[in-house]
Amino acid sequence: QTTNGAYGAIYALSQNGTTTITNSGTISSDDWSGIDVGTGSADVTINNSGTISADDYQAVRANSVATDGFTLVNSGTITAASTGVYLYQSEGATVTNSGTIRVTNGHDAIWTAYTDDITITNSGTLRSDTGYAMSSIGYSGGENMTLTNTGTIQGSTYDLHTSSNTGIGTLSNDQGGDDALKLYGYLPVLYKIIVNSTSDFGKLAVTGQNGDMTFGIHTSSALAATTYSDVITGVSSSNITSGTTGTVTASNGVFTWELNNSSGNDWDLVVSEDSTDPTLSSSTPADNATGVAVN
């Protein structure tokens, strides 16, 4: 167990070479960050299967790390009072979470303002007890986040808060049921629903819609010829720029789909098996040949 320190329990600065921090125990701080990755660091990877915590500040802090220079892989628990994972001006950072990242008295499990091209893959839990699980997405030039959610993202009122129309470049989501993914603000540029079964599929509930969105179906989906209800709520037809019909090659075949405006700004997804006939082709033998020799 490691505690305190002027720059966190662990201060990582890697300007030349690679730094890898692997934790299967406990890293904690009661007056700063659990792990603080310093300004100018070039190649830092954190692998956590244990616990990283901070009582007063951020559990994991990456401040002005070089482009593509920060990677966090979490299968354990990251908790903080303020922010779970703080990414500031760390373009191209990657976070893969199959565990839990939780903040108990602040807004963000993961905070990404001022940072472009972040990739976040969540199959675990991102949670804020008192605010947004992720807020200020796209703030002050932070653009083109790729967010894939096959787990749970949970805020106290809304799950995601977006500040610009290019904040989320691609959002792929299978969180649904009675716990739709709740977004406040600007729409993702591209939203891909993930469908696992007729009873397990993504739902996006939007409040305060701004911007435009293209809708699609993730190719990992397992589809059936049926209607999936309330896949999107709170989005007007004028904000869906790609149209409301299409064809997708899913994991179990080719299907056609239609977004049906069931009421107001709410949408169902109607899926049918693709009935398009295959295209046949033929050719004329060259040089006036009248037959083909078979050996």
Instruction: Determine the fraction of residues in helical runs and give it as a percent range.
Output: under 10%
Helix and strand pattern:
EEEEEEEEEEEEEEEEEEEEEEEEEEEEEE
Total number of helices: 0
Largest sheet: 9 strands, parallel
Tell me, rounded to a whole number, the average pLDDT.
90
Q: Order the strands across the largest sheet as they lie in space.
A: 2-5-8-11-14-17-20-22-26
Task: Give me the Rg, rounded.
Answer: 23 Å
Structural class: mainly beta
What's the end-to-end separation, in Å? 75 Å
Our estimate of the beta-strand percent is over 45%
* Shape estimate: elongated
Number of E strands: 30
Describe the model.
- With 295 residues, this protein is mainly β.
- Helices cover 0% and strands 49% of the residues.
- It has no helices and 30 strands.
Chain-wise SSE layout:
Blueprint: E1 10-12, E2 19-23, E3 26-29, E4 35-37, E5 44-48, E6 51-54, E7 58-63, E8 70-74, E9 77-80, E10 83-88, E11 94-97, E12 100-103, E13 108-111, E14 119-122, E15 125-128, E16 134-137, E17 145-149, E18 152-154, E19 160-162, E20 168-173, E21 181-186, E22 190-193, E23 195-197, E24 200-201, E25 204-210, E26 214-217, E27 227-233, E28 245-250, E29 253-263, E30 266-273
Parallel strand pairs: 1-4, 2-5, 3-6, 4-7, 5-8, 6-9, 7-10, 8-11, 9-12, 10-13, 11-14, 12-15, 14-17, 15-18, 16-19, 17-20, 19-21, 20-22, 21-25, 22-26, 25-27
Antiparallel strand pairs: 23-24, 27-30, 28-29, 29-30
